[in-house]
Amino acid sequence: MSLALTVTFALADWIAKGLADGTFERVGGVIREVGNKQVVTWLREYGLNSSPVLTPSGSPQNLLNLVVSGANLLTSGANTAVTTQGFADVNQRLGGVEQASLGNIALSGAGLVASVANAAISGKGLADVNGRLGSMETQIGEIGQNILRNQGILQITTAASVLNLGVSVMGFAVIAQRLQEIEQQLKQAQELLNKINRKIDLSFYANFHAGIELAINAFTMTKPENRRSSALQAINRFLEAEHIYKDLTVNEFSQKSQMIDKYILTLCLAYIAEARCHLELEEHETAIRRFQEGSKFIRLLLNKYIEIMLTSNPAAYLHPQFKGQIDLRKLTKIYQWIDPNFNENTVFEMHRENILKLAQNHDEWLSSLPSAIVDRSEIKWGLFGGNPTPLTGRFEKEAYKRLPQVFEVMESMIETNHRFESYQTEIQAVSQLGISFHDWLKLTPSTEIKPDGAELMYIIPSQPLNLQSAI
Length: 471
Hints:
Layout (H helix, E strand, L loop, with lengths): L4 E4 L4 H9 L2 E4 L2 E4 L5 E7 L17 H4 L3 H9 L5 H16 L9 H9 L5 H32 L17 H24 L7 H16 L5 H32 L4 H21 L3 H26 L18 H11 L5 H17 L2 H5 L25 H41 L3 H5 L14 E6 L10
Antiparallel strand pairs: 1-5, 2-3, 3-4, 4-5
Helix pairs in contact: 3-5, 4-6, 5-6, 7-8, 7-10, 8-9, 9-10, 10-11, 10-15, 11-15
């Protein structure tokens, strides 16, 4: 299939409109049509796995190359008597800036005004320059507001995730960094587990890190046979990690412990590391198959995890003290991940009686809280010790204190799942578009300059792609 791709830093108006009116939805790193699930855009963080934007001549293009910089102004008129010819030069250069797509530049008009203010210049010329600078500042201000507005429409920042928006920016260095972050969290959890005579074996992470180092070395080799041999060794390490963290996750479910989410995230990274090796070897079909197999298993684990974290009475998340933090709309989104047919009305009806139950007697709910939310051993029971009981006021206070954080973790895990599943669309697109994965990595706006505050690139096919089997 041969389709044109548009790569841009600006979210197209028709896409923003579709997101606002519900025609489109963001699922992980893709924007798709709600009805037929066809992909209309891929999102990619910029700067993590991309090279600088180049001009058609091949030189880096940035603000200093286009805008009259302070250094240039100092030599071209800031400390000199600017003549009529000088103003012609300034106007010409400003005109060049205006032609360089104001939608894609960030400019400090204040700096220019301060530099020109030192010059002995005519009133008419200054008024002309200031007028044009004011117009540019207005347009640039609107650009910044549009970026913030579009980020709000995309709702990317509403839930943090251990994964990036696309597999194209989940290189081995990023995977290693995420892995280290999870490992640190587990080390902190170890302090709690020591109190109940449980230990975490972190030695498995060393094996995972060794696999990443193998992969990094493999894909810096020049000889194809060496690359492939080392890559296969790395893949074996990642396969081993997948088996280990599957077993660890399943075991932790029996304890309903605070390690469950961390092991699930580690398992996600193991699948991604393996798939990335296949992609580097341009084995697209194998990468897709491994993602599909991983998605099914991770989805099963997450379903069970969310069920635990919703607790025996999910109406607790609608407690009045969480007003402004958690509402029915947010709770409904959790249920819609489980079953897309849920809406706010069905969720409310489901919990109508639960709300009353919680108000009348919440001791039963407190007694059933899993260790994943709050472990009894974490609570200090007073100077004289005593047997911990969920009816103790300290336990109740700590439980309610943690619920907003627990809710954010659920949102984060669901967002991670969406991103993991949407990675398949990138690989499918590469296959359907008939390009290599390495060419896909190189996609970047050819002439645009990254606007200040823009952190995303948008990859838009000339027509929507039917990749609904992936997500």
